[in-house]
Amino acid sequence: MQVARESRFATALPAIVLALLVANTPAPEGLSGTSMRLLGVFTGVVMGLLTADYDTSVILGVALLALTLTKSFMCRTADGQLVECDKCQTQFVDRHGHSQEYQCDGIGGSFEVAISGFSNKIAWLVFSAFHIGKAVEKTNLGRRISLALVTTMGKSTAGIAYAICVAELALAPFIPSNTARGGGIIYPIVESVIASLGVDRTMGENPVGAYLSMVASNANLISSSLFVTGMAGNPIVASKAASIFGIEFGFAEWFLGASVPMLFLLFIMPHVLHLLLRPKLDVAGLAREIRRQHLVMGSVSFNELKLCATLLLCLALWVGTSYFGIDATVVAYMAIMILILLDVLSWSDVAKNSTAWDTFFWLASFIVLAEQLSALGVTDWIGNSLSGSLHDASPLTSTVTLSLVYFFSMYMFSSISSHVVAFVGPFFAAGHVLNCSPHLLAIIIAVFSSTAGILTPFSTGSVAIYASQGFISQPKWFLLGLIMSLVVLGTTFSVGLVWWKLLGWY
To answer: Topologically, how does it sit relative to the membrane (predicted)?
Structure first.
């Protein structure tokens, strides 16, 4: 046991060393010592997410503690000034030449900043959506919807593929974990479909298993790009778009921008993969398996009907935010209370939903880091550095170049959320310096944050689940990922650019 603990700590050493090196590097022009400590801890967090054998929340908790104890945030003084926390209770000379003291508490003020993310509306939106997803899982509504779609559409190869796509699309607004949605609800159905078609996973590669696995994993990522609640990292994109560009990028705006290009991509994706893999399916065997699963589930329960009514209310209020004047987070929070009062969920379900609480903690922590990186000038400094090589390019060329670099940088990450945390802020800051159209860069980065996961078999949990089934080799997955990435880019820079031009976003 002691050896295991020591070995576990050893996995965090690269992150600790990197954090210390960056934090103690002399500050370049435009940054302060406080900025460098924050940047050091942030780079350590990113490295820790890649290498350390600790939960994300533990890594973020340690990071916030380190930043609090070293006073590496921006504090607010008694008279409302913003000042680096390590300057609290030190002397300064005001504009009238009088000696004054910054009236703030360095460590206490730092801790207030560290926990400020837990009051952030975006963190509460995702937290609430996780509990709605729990209700979808608990009532079996998600599984029933998926089975119904496969029953209705599963009379051909294309029909089964589209059933999987529509199932992901139907659940994406309500389940903000693409891994929970793809791995917990959709994957078991896909697995049953593959088994019913007589595919034996022990026999190695198989075109049928490969086709359905690739369709399902791609559908999971594309559906995640359509909604701000479709993937846990999406709210960070929305938050940075608001803070750097000053634009509203909520549920309705996100879906409006992503809808046409991503729905088009979802439509053509099964056909492209069918041309590449050429599977042959036993549709009769599938029909028997689906009938068996329907019999096991039984008829629609009253709880499912109550959940459906609540979800329809949420969608109506989300889409009509400008008309009803109710914030999206309030709608999601209201849904939890309704589901509890209707006995669809119990308070015990909420309390025991560890995934929701865990995501709430690390997402709130990331929001604090992102806000402080901006407040201390780190994001602008990185953005200026990135933009240096594009200073002679047009805003549209800069937008395309930045988004392409952002997309293919996903090769370096094994977590979509880590990729978002590391790069969204700096790339938005670079776009701001280069006068890129705010809405255009924001929506491209938004959809690329999820769809870049197509590149590798280890980009996110749901993709890893499908890739680990053995129906397709790792080298072939990388090849197909590269081909599909070209389809994503082609769709984005053709259909997407036309749609965003019509919207007046550039």
So the answer is: Multi-pass membrane protein
- Radius of gyration of the chain, Cα coordinates, nearest whole angstrom: 24
Domain of 402 in residue numbering reads as 121-502
| Strands 91-93 and 99-101, bridge-based pairing | antiparallel
Q: How far apart are CA 488 and CA 438, in angstroms?
A: 21
- If asked whether residues 99 and 221 sit together in one domain, one would say no
What does each of the 506 residues of the chain score in pLDDT, given as a tens digit?
454 556 788 999 999 999 999 999 999 988 999 999 999 998 898 888 778 889 888 999 999 999 999 999 999 998 888 999 999 999 887 777 778 888 999 999 999 999 998 988 777 877 887 788 788 778 888 777 767 767 777 677 788 888 889 889 988 887 777 877 776 677 767 776 776 666 666 666 788 889 989 999 999 999 999 999 888 889 889 988 988 998 888 888 999 999 999 999 999 999 999 999 988 766 666 666 667 776 777 788 899 999 989 988 887 887 676 678 887 778 889 999 999 999 999 999 999 988 789 878 887 887 788 778 878 888 778 777 777 778 788 999 999 999 998 998 888 776 788 788 878 988 998 999 899 999 999 999 999 999 999 998 878 777 877 887 778 887 888 899 999 999 999 999 999 999 999 999 99
Tokens of 7: 């070995």
212's tokens: 């359905």
Both 138 and 103 in a single domain?
A: no
Q: Are 505 and 245 in contact (CB under 8 A)?
A: no
Q: How far apart are CA 117 and CA 107, in angstroms?
A: 17
Q: In the listed set 87, 113, 139, which residue is the last one of a domain according to the structure?
A: 113
Burial label, 260 (beta-carbon count in 10 A; 0-12, 13-18, 19+)? middle
Q: How many domains does the chain have?
A: 2
Q: 455 and 492 share a domain?
A: yes
Asked if residues 466 and 440 have their Cβ atoms less than 8 Å apart, the reply is: no
Please state the φ and ψ torsions of residue 471, each to the nearest 5 degrees: -80, -15
Determine if the pTM surpasses 0.90: no
Pairwise CA distance, residues 350 & 356, whole Å: 8
Task: Assess whether 84 and 189 both reside in one domain.
Answer: no
Distance between CA atoms of residues 12 and 6, nearest Å? 10
Domain match, 134 and 44 both: no
Beta carbons of 279 and 210 less than 8 angstroms apart: yes
Pair (373, 225) in one structural domain: yes
Whether 79 and 187 share a structural domain: no
Asked if 217 and 85 sit in the same domain, the reply is no
